[in-house]
Amino acid sequence: MWGRLWPLLLSFLAATAVPGPSLRRPSRELDTLNLKRQWEPGLGGKAQNYSTLLLEEASARLLVGARGALYSLSANDIGDGAHKEIHWEASPEMRSKCHQKGKNNQTECFNHVRFLQRLNSTHLYACGTHAFQPLCAAIDAEAFTLPTSFEEGKEKCPYDPARGFTGLIIDGGLYTATRYEFRSTPDIRRSRHPHSLRTEETPMHWLNDAEFVFSVLVRESKASAVGDDDKVYYFFTERATEEGSGSFPQSRSSHRVARVARVCKGDLGGKKILQKKWTSFLKARLICHIPLYETLRGVCSLDADTSSRTHFYAVFTLSTQWSTLEASAICRYDLAEMQAVFAGPYMEYQDGSRRWGRYEGGVPEPRPGSCITDSLRNQGYNSSQDLPSLVLDFVKLHPLMARPVVPTRGRPLLLKRNVRYTHLTGTPVTTPAGPTYDLLFLGTADGWIHKAVVLGSGMHIIEETQVFREAQSVENLVISLLQHSLYVGASSGVIQLPLSSCLRYRSCYDCILARDPYCGWDTGTQACVTATTAANRTALIQDIERGNQGCENSRDTGPPPPLKTRSVLRGDDVLLPCDQPSNLARALWLFNGSLGLSDGQGGYRVGVDGLLVTDAQPEHSGNYGCYAEENGLRTLLASYSLSVRPATPAPAPQAPATAGAQLAPDVRLLYVLAIAALGGLCLILASSLLYVACLREGRRGRRRKYSLGRASRAGGSAVQLQTVSGQCPGEEDEGDDEEGAEGLEGSCLQIIPGEGAPAPPPPPPPPPPAELTNGLVALPSRLRRMNGNSYVLLRQSNNGVPAGPCSFAEELSRILEKRKHTQLVEQLDESSV
Ligand SMILES: *[C@@H]1O[C@H](CO)[C@@H](O)[C@H](O)[C@H]1NC(C)=O
Ligand SMILES: *[C@@H]1O[C@H](CO)[C@@H](O)[C@H](O)[C@H]1NC(C)=O
Ligand SMILES: *[C@@H]1O[C@H](CO)[C@@H](O)[C@H](O)[C@H]1NC(C)=O
Ligand SMILES: *[C@@H]1O[C@H](CO)[C@@H](O)[C@H](O)[C@H]1NC(C)=O
Ligand SMILES: *[C@@H]1O[C@H](CO)[C@@H](O)[C@H](O)[C@H]1NC(C)=O
Ligand SMILES: *[C@@H]1O[C@H](CO)[C@@H](O)[C@H](O)[C@H]1NC(C)=O
């Protein structure tokens, strides 16, 4: 239902035309490839599942495996129209057979291309599910046409299009991992190779209900002093058989854990024992933040060519026990840690106690599960086939290591609630100053891309971009450094994004606050430029680690925001609006230039949209300054002069009334008309907003702040419609502490007068320059407002979280109720400056 309402909400917000800080909008720089429909005649469905991507940098082609088709796109501009295509669909007979087997003919009984890799210098190799009868084909890359004959695919490709699968072609051999046939157990296989291999199933399964996520070849032979072999690492989630007791007694059999396994590339299997089976298979538990986050969703490897620097990033979501909540964790792992675990103690199934425990006995030589190295060759073990039976028997029974692989720094880099990451990729970026930072791109289950930089202190999310209008899972991500592009594959299409767009940061502070390793402030041209291509890299200002230093001399301070005057009656409530420029910024209010105001004290409430003064008293009179504080930088956003007047209509306050009475009758009529128009407008806006609020009710988890009414800042209208809401520290509510953005649930409208006369509905969004004329030049621009995001490290509960901005909902309902009748008129009087 939400999917249908979302456009409605969008169009409503577009109509009211005021983008709030967290109303994240699609980037305008997208090149969308919309290949759908044309190639799925008779279906009319949008589902094309563009989920298999292969980038060929040398020829600048992006190859896409989709449902029923393969495409070859120009990597430079995937939407340039010069693409080639191959139809590769399952025949109607195949599909009806598939349907008869009980499979879904709307989603499953198609040819989903799951595998697409370079085979040799002339050919590609692709496999498709082919309506649950997998087929593979060697495709001439130049001609880009299907061959006349196909290869059987049941040993190489999953039957089920949704089943976890990973595959590589290494030196012509096919290394695939998935569950292959209808009911067979999961397996890591090597095929198209003189020595086909698979995992062992008797007397114990080496893999249990495994769901594969990722695999990678690590060139450990390169520069190895001991003549080590290259290894293939596999990442997956599987049923934990070794969990004895502890946290999951009730769900012991369904408890799933993340694993990493590895095999040696040169493995030839055993001669009598472990014939045609891996002799080098070892697996270990992968720990990120247990017992909460144990479902592996995505893994990427960095520097896999240089094993001394190889490391991995993995995304986890909550384990099935908590599947109603949405949250993700990201951990980093070093290859060295994995190597140490695989060189450590083994686990063993103890028949007596029917449990897994650490193996304490003697370990045979050569060490079981190790690759053939120089020292083994010197001992006469030229290949795995020469290994003694004792060693292979041990391998058969001891696939699991005792020690788990723990993340770098022992903890997650990022925990993020209300987000379900589905995929990630990354690349190291070397900055002009020397240090290299890992830049990650994370795809979410609802079609967003989060770009993040890994810092010494954790992870910083640089921006969030909605790349698909329709919520859909990001299925694949590929980076091209040559094209400076990120390719995103999902159900409805492929999208190409620039790796960075520094030009949109308009000031020095904006540029360094973003902390994008690709971006630096060029003091010569006074622009935020791509650091890796800048003409004079020494003249660039960057501060990736701290994000606040270097701009001291280039700060171009705009004019200070104009002082606004507010005059209220004693006992009234008044809101002094002030929007924060970035989700990362913190609001700071100073009274009479020095006294910092804190929430809940002295009748003040500090909200995300402004300062609420409740039950105003004469001592509240004075000057109020609203500052944005981000990363130690403080900028004045708004200043107000508030005067509180006695409420009792004593003789003196007759004046305004007299003034009113002295107005000419037609002026008064105009005035009344204006007020009526204003009232009507407010009512319409209020009901639309409340309607939208109701639409949002059913949807927990996504919390955003909609701030309607920044019009006065742009110098236009007098009426400000504010939704002010927030979260109470005690509220049972995930995520707000991370997002700093609030939902509309329970929020309310406040109508407050602005400067000048009543005016028509808020105009369309002010062009950026208008926004920048208001003293905001020095700090984050609108784009960062939309894209910047906050995060929380290692915070599982709200315990100990400092009291954040609190909800004004109740206060404001009360105020609205009051003002609906009498206060509105009075307020208009009061505020005319
Ligand atoms: C293909 O796309 C459809 C529609 O978005 C989706 O329902 C289905 O799960 C996708 N299939 C796979 C295997 O991703
Ligand atoms: C799927 O199967 C249903 C029931 O047999 C049939 O009515 C429908 O036409 C089939 N759809 C397609 C696309 O084959
Ligand atoms: C590449 O592989 C294909 C399919 O096996 C084969 O026909 C072709 O001759 C190979 N090309 C080269 C250059 O080895
Ligand atoms: C291993 O290779 C060496 C040299 O290639 C050879 O002399 C030796 O006999 C081989 N050993 C076995 C067990 O095959
Ligand atoms: C680069 O910038 C530095 C610092 O501003 C300056 O000293 C140097 O001359 C510049 N080099 C070039 C080639 O412009
Ligand atoms: C704040 O300043 C106003 C006017 O400048 C003054 O009337 C008021 O007493 C001051 N309040 C305090 C608490 O200093």
UniProtKB/TrEMBL annotation:
Transmembrane residue ranges: 669-695
Domain Ig-like positions: 561-643
Region annotation (Disordered) ranges: 717-773
Example of a GO cellular component annotation carried by this entry: plasma membrane
InterPro entries in the record: Ig-like_dom, Ig-like_dom_sf, Ig-like_fold, Ig_sub, Plexin_repeat, PSI, Semap_dom, Semap_dom_sf
One example GO MF annotation: semaphorin receptor binding
Family annotation (PANTHER family): SEMAPHORIN, SEMAPHORIN-4G
Name recorded for this polypeptide: Semaphorin-4G
